[in-house]
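pipeline stage [seq->struct] | target=Cytochrome C oxidase, cbb3-type, subunit III | organism=Gemmobacter megaterium | residues=151
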Amino acid sequence: MNPTSLGLVIAIAIAVAGVWTLSRERAPPPTTVAGLPDLPADLVPPPMVEVVLPASFTPTEVMGERAFTTFCAACHGSNAAGREGIAPPLVHRIYHPAHHSDEAFHIAARHGVRAHHWRFGNMPPIEGVTRAEVTTIIAFVRALQRANGIE
C-alpha cells in the first residue's frame, strides 16, 4: 500500500471512530443542585419530618408535584419533608400560609431568600423555573400542609 492510500485509510478509520463515538447514547449527566454533591442514595440526608400524603391531588397539584421534584426536591426532600443539613421541610408550621404567603414562595424562587428561621444558609434563586410552575408548586405544598394539619 502506498503512503497516500495508507494515509487515506487511517483518516477514514479516525473519521468512522469519531462518528461512532459521537453517535453512541450517553447517560445524562447527574442532576445536581448548586452547592450539593451528587450523593449515592445511601448517603442522602434523611428527611426532617414525616409527611402524610393527601388522599388525592388535584390536576394542578399533580403538576406542582412534578415541578417540585424537578426544582425543589434535591434540597427540600421528597414531599417537602426537608433534608437534614441541607434545607428545611416546607411541611412545617413556620410555612403556614398566614406567615409565609404564596407570594413569599414566588419571591424566594425568583430572588432567593436570606436564612431567617433555620441555619441552613441562604437559599439561592431557582434558575429556569417560571412563575406558573411556582404557582403549581405552591398548590402542591399547600395540599401537603393541609394533609398534615397546617392550614
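stage status: PASS
auto-comment: Helices lie at 3-23, 59-71, 73-76, 102-111, 131-147. Residues 27-35 have pLDDT under 50 and may be disordered.
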